[in-house]
Amino acid sequence: MPELLAVNKNLFVEDAWQLDVFKGTGGYERARRALTEMSPEDLIAMMEASGLKGRGGAFFPTGMKWKFVRADPNTPRYVIANGDESEPGTFCNRFNMELDPHLFIEGMIIAAYAVDSHFGYIYIRGEYGRAIERVEQALADCYADGILGDDVLGSGYKLDLRLRRGAGAYICGEETALFNSLEGKRGNPRFKPPFPTNSGVWRKPTVINNIETFACVPLIVENGAEWFQELGEGDENAGTKIYCLSGVINNPGVYELPMGVTARELIYEYGGGLPEGRTLKGFKPGGASAAILTSEQLDVRLDPSIAQYDTIMGTGGVIVMDETVCMVDAAYRDALFFEEESCGFCIPCREGTPNLVQILERLMHGQGVMADLQLMEEIGDSMASSFCGLGQFAYRPVVGAAQKYRDEFVAHVEGSCPAGSCAIANN
Amino acid sequence: MTQATGPVEQTQADQSTVLESLRTRLADLKDEPGSLLEALYIAQEMLGYVAPESIEIISEELGYPEAHVFGVVTFYTLFYTEPQPKHIVRVCRDLSCHIAGATKIAARARQEIGAHPGHASADGLLKLELVSCLGQCEKQPALMVNLDVHGPVTEEEVTDLIRSLREEDQ
């Protein structure tokens, strides 16, 4: 099965980030058609029929989101592209922003028209220097060419888009934290409900979608809802997903495949498998937040149904580990990440994340006790009551690893590292 | 839009002149609601860090309480409240890079820089930071010098890189 290229098609077109090249691929014709020939209601119905769901990891139906925003009488309404991609093991948005920035901007224009919004933001993490440059250039070119501004593509529709940079905070990828950041505040999340569709940035109805979600939109307008629906594996999945592959793998990179391919297909057919002589031990299906799956679970489908295995699809950032990777160490890396990125706003997350780090450090230094394994689960139970998704998910990769690789954790309590790669082994 | 996201070379210009020009540059942001982070980027670009005086000016010009501005500066890891070395070497320490040997990369960087993570080198030119995922995982192990991405890097390349950064400044 060849790699399916829809959203990523222009990644193989030289200089597609330049406006004239992008236009040569049919760029902005979809938006023109949408704004001049289609009604907002038709567009929303089309998104609903396509089965497009949010690619940021929550998989909320895009058409439904737009419908809620349009139905809210409050104005002004806003559209926001979330380019704060910071989940460990995830880097696909970066490719799309650097190499094909106009595609998701075109999707934003269509979304804005569908919900009657005249202002939007593109929020990109501050570390993505090149993506920021390319998107800034793309916006300038759009204004110069009449694609943005007072008369979008000659349709008479008005739309302004602004680029804003994050400044090093994973939590700002959480939509309500992102709103606070855009408003010039600390990136603490807000309580939900109300949801962004009714109370988003500036407390106004807001469409916020991932870069990849917006990038799907022009393609759906061009090829139809049915085409998109059929791209996915099985009845439940629509479209493609851009999976990111890293860790112990021959060909790390981004792969656009039918939503719902199996981990085995991704790792072995597309990623080239593990380097010679290395054996798969486990893999994380969706970034740091996703609990690890074992080598016996290679045939699970990488789609939201993966939740039945006590993990999450997340961002589709698949991280592959072999027998040399110590699972206590791997869990420690995740714990360290969440400790660093916890915003400190709520107690279960602020206190729970460093507690997990400390326990894992003990285990890796031969100072752990059996009660620590139980303690991690108890801390996890408290963290489940965290204010936002960060804390609600942060403990799961740690507790999950300790359950799936219990023998290995117990071995650390007894003073040895079977993988031979963590601190205990080097003493 | 300003390009610097980290420290830049300290200018010899009189700080008060710089601060006055910060005031001028903030004028564009007054009509742009919520543009505090952009203001902080500008302030940091001009002095290499967000100085207490810059916070005062931003507070006056954009109408935020100083405490609010300080709270925002300290929330985001790319903003600094102290003068910074010219080059910040940011080594990713998260899972993919770690599996690919980031710990050795960080150790080598520390050895070449000659200072613990978070501390400036003796010559004041360099600093190592161990940071969260940079979103460059296909280049595992990856690092950034300020915002320039390098990867996959070997220990030898880290040595060469840091030495060449030092030579640039001689």
Molecular structure report:
The complex is a heterodimer of chains A (427) and B (170). Helix content of chain A is 42%, strand content 12%. In chain A, the strands form 2 sheets. A 5-stranded mixed sheet of chain A has the order 6-5-9-7-8, with helices on one face. In chain A, strands 3-2-1-4 form a 4-stranded parallel sheet, with helices on both faces. Chain B is 45% helix and 11% strand. In chain B, a hairpin with a 2-residue loop joins strand 3 and strand 4. In chain B, helix 1 packs parallel to helix 3, helix 3 packs across helix 4 and helix 6 packs parallel to helix 7. The longest helix of chain B is centred in the C-terminal third of the chain and has 14 residues. Chain B is elongated. The mean pLDDT of chain B is 93.
> What's the number of domains of chain A?
3
Number of domains of chain B: 2
Side-by-side strand order of the widest sheet of chain B: 2-1-3-4
Structural class of chain B: alpha+beta
Please outline the major beta sheet of chain A.
Answer: 5 strands, mixed
Q: What would the average pLDDT of chain A be, to the nearest integer?
A: 97
